[in-house]
Amino acid sequence: MPQTADLIVENASVLTIDPDTPRAQAIAVKGDKIIAIADRDSVRDYKGPGTRVIDAQGGSVLPGFIEAHMHLFGGAAELDNLHLAGVHGFEALRDAIQDFAAKRPDARLLVGAGVDYAILPEPVTRHDLDRIIPDRPFAMSASDHHTMWANTKALEEAGLLHGRQVGQGNEIVMGKDGLAAGELREGEAFGPVLDHYGANRTRLGLEGAEPNPYPSAKELAADRDLMHRGLQWCAKHGITSIQNMDGNLYQLELLAGLEEEGRLICRTKIPFHFKNFMKLEMLEKASRMAAAYNSEWLSSGMVKVFYDGVLDSWTAVMVDDYADRPGWRGEPLFSREHFAEVAVEADRRGLQIAVHSIGDGAVRAVLDGYQAALEKNGRRDSRHRVEHIEVITASDVPRFAELGVLASMQPAHPPGALNFPMEPTISRIGRDKWPLSYAWRTLKNAGARVVFASDWPVSPVDPILSIQAAVMRKPWAEGMPDQSFSLQEAIEGYTGEGAYAEFMEHRRGRLKTGYLADIVVLSADIEATAPEALHTVRPVTTICGGKITYQA
């Protein structure tokens, strides 16, 4: 007699992502594990008087989505910001900001997000924002979160109006009048604005810093609630595992507090963020975090690094000059030698490394660092990662498979794929480099493991939107290679490959007897849905560790 299940999902089109048993009709769960996956009649044998039965009504059932690159704390904070994606022209911007400000009379700093670099016909200045809101501090960030624009009030109060020394790769753009023009490129340039108004605790994980002074009990509770709201947003979109890409000890403590309260509803991995001004000894903190947090629900063990910025602000590092800015290739945040030292030491400690590398120059330097680690420490199953890889050279493509390095990429990011416009990005890259831009298919065909994610809040957290973007991807011009993925490949990029990226392919990322019961039930059969209509398929139930974490 089979054991009695706590939960059964039946009448389903189950895509297991398990090559041994690719399809099924029903799943039985006991505790936090899958105990049976088969046809409906076989799984019914596991039903007892206390078994909860979910009727999938013919909808697809998949492994819970694994979001392999996101910013949980900052994303949660942005849920309340002014969302400016899709807003263009001065009048539309004015109306959105003034309406938002009227509803928040007590906000110390008004913050907008999701701004297109071409929101106005000419580059945004503080004077444009002053015409809209002169008397209250206002700042708005580009959708990629690498540039902010602030009005005069915010710049003045944060002590930036007359400029300030910032580190390499960062810039406070100055106007002809000798004052800050309003555009702040990269975190050291706009961080002081957020710091001044107490809006920076959610960003400290991008600095590898801890709150100082430590938050009061009230602030701590508010931060835990904010983090929980972010987790709920993820669960609503079918996500069961998160690989966060900014981190500090404080975020781990917040999540541990939620776990004690029974509110940690997604498995979460938090890295230590290493900055270019830190000494190598700081990696001891990363090792301590890895040792202290190493459970199925909350873990560390990763070092996150930024090597460059982004294409749209010319801060990504390129092998050749920018197509629209001769003589300029971007300024790296690390020298090649410094990054190699960091990679060798982090690898020696057994830590996984993930590096933001957007330009082909950055990608090459990071691969060189991983090569140095391999040569110095010997080959191991390190699964080091390169994040984004928006442009790559042909000679670097095969190195991913050769070095065992993961390509962590975002289907929503190519211009024209989802929420990013074609310009100015494709002109920055230049036509000669288009064939190897956002080259998921090229990398996969060369043997690389390609893992998908959203980079939320840079792009919407919704995995199904990203899956649609991957399937619907179109070349920018005739004769360019097709970089799109099949539906199965895109789903695997959000499930099995995500599990591999966190060394958990033996526990999750597929639906299989003995695996963790991380499951998402969808509103329709995703395979029977037209590619252009995939976004209409919605998660209706999310199950993590056998517990329902979201129910539509």
TrEMBL record:
Its EC number is 3.5.-.-. Keywords: Hydrolase. GO terms for molecular function: hydrolase activity. It comes from the Bacteria. Residues 52-550 form the Amidohydrolase domain. InterPro entries: Amidohydro_3 (IPR013108), Metal-dep_hydrolase_composite (IPR011059), Metal_Hydrolase (IPR032466), YtcJ-like (IPR033932). PANTHER family: IMIDAZOLONEPROPIONASE, PROTEIN LONG AFTER FAR-RED 3. This is Amidohydrolase.
